[in-house]
Amino acid sequence: xxxxxFTTLQMIALALLRILIGWHFLYEGxxxxxxxxxxxxxxxxxxxxxxAGFFHWIANSPELLRYADLxxxxxxxxxxxxxxxxxxxxxxxxxxxxxxxxxxxCNPPFIGYFYSLPSEGxxxxxxxxxxxxxALLAILVLHSGRxxxxxxxxxxxxxxxxxxxx
Length: 166
What we know:
mainly alpha
């Protein structure tokens, strides 16, 4: 995708969206990392969505839960850094999209599903996770790391390398 298809303001807006979502992921991961007793167990045990059995299985297996917690913490941190720096943005946004959809399907805002977890609002089908997933999809398909990110440098470097080897 050529950068000439977007105005400077559009590129700034897309980069800002990417950086803000990256900060959200990074901060959530660091908070979990700094809290030694943090576990996803209670969240997974609250699952009421279509994948509830899968999430309960993870929560009820100490070994699987330990891996899930580590993957959650470090996934959030690495995805956040990738998005904020615009480095391997497509990988980071794809991984972020997958992770946020897992959160969504763990406790989706569907009719008839009620949770003991506190919620900051009332949702029906669409919640903040689904909105963030849509934003990550836009970041993924619009190659936003090529605007004000390390991917911009890497793209130019590898484009020059490819031309030199042909």
